[in-house]
Amino acid sequence: MAEKKEFRAGLYGIVAGILVAAILVGTTMFAFTSRYNAFSAEKIAVSYVDTIVQNGDGYNALKVSLVSKNQKFGNFVIDGYMAPYINDGEDVEKNEIIGTGSEEEVKMLDSVYNTMYDYFILLTHEVGLENYNEFYSSYFEKLKLVRSEIIGDEYMDTEFMFSVFESNVATYGEGLTGTEEKLAADGKTVIQPKSIGKYQEMLGEDYILTTEVASVQVLSADEVEAYKQEYKQRIAPIIDAGKVKSAAFDEEKAKAMNDAFSKLDSSDDFSEVKACAVNVKTADGRIVASAVINVVKIGNSWYVDNSNSDTSALYFA
Predict the structure, then answer these.
(1) Which of 72, 131, 264, 308 has the most CB atoms around its CB within 10 Å?
(2) How, if at all, do strands 209-218 and 190-192 pair?
């Protein structure tokens, strides 16, 4: 697993514009590529594995999974897991230091991001991002406590929660791939130091990883019917737990949570199922990781069944 890479909140304002632009371009490309790949079982399986193995990014990988069939993944995370903690300042005062840009604020934010990164690594080891229900439930509950302990207020909104979580995802990826030195506009201030990642240590600084489907097992019609029932059984506890959790909140939040979880079961629409054995290779053809990715067809599109695809071997560093 990747070593800890400290987040420095003091540099955030300098690089924010660059990051937003990069995220927008990356999101557009990801959406276009995902729509294209969705028409091929093999390509969607490769896309899922590649997203994980190139940057350890099990979060964005789920955007091509069944979780995202009937809803945007970000909305699912908000409605299903952030909602219990969102208050947007309703009857909650934000610590007056936040937003000042002071050294004290920087230290606070540094501490929040780095404390949560330690917890992110712990959950990645012990839970895994495929187990999104336990992962996000635990992560955002911990974030609420960490904010209260470090910043000293109860203020929680989606911007804050996503900024911490997505920073943890990015930091983990950089710990694997390493980083190039980046300078500010003055040509002197280092806003990102050069670092050597785990992959570079293991595979060489100029490593290349490629992903390919080695074999495909096509399930028979009877096997597809059995697979539908098995999927229902796997997903039912998550849906039921969501309903129980939603009962503690007001009508608006409860409805959003119930809708989010109820959309998880699309098994009645499965028409085909394939098991794709995917290998990850270095430039010289050496296999460094493998996983069997189960994909299901709904309409004309294929989706990864994340509930039945063990990708633990893909986190090989």
Answers:
(1) 264
(2) unpaired
